[in-house]
Specification:
With 128 residues, the chain is an alpha/beta fold. The protein contains five helices and five strands; from the N terminus they run E-H-E-H-E-H-E-H-E-H. The radius of gyration is 13 Å and the shape is globular.
Amino acid sequence: MNYHKKILLAEDDLICQNIIKLILKDYDNILLDIVDNGLDLLKLVGEKEYDLILMDLRMPTISGFDATKIIRTNNGNNKNTPIIAVTACAMDTEKERCFAMGMNDFIAKPFKLQRLTKTLEKYIWLLF
């Protein structure tokens, strides 16, 4: 059986998108969808089931906070999908807000490769 893990990256910064795309290409069996705004994110989570969501907090149309709240309160396929916040704001109050909204983890930008890889592997290992 050749099962692929599906990851959704919601990130409006092209550089960050490319870095994460490069990191994930080294993992076997990962399919990556990328959106650059909250509206497209919610459209995709309504259409597909994901194994992991990487969520920027400040995106056009709908913020990562609001999108997470909608995902968590919706009875769709992604209600319990792990969501990792990826944000430039690393204040403790921001972290607390992420967890209060239902996110599972938090990575601050600019992130170190090792931090991102370690966090992704934590959830990817759980997926396999």
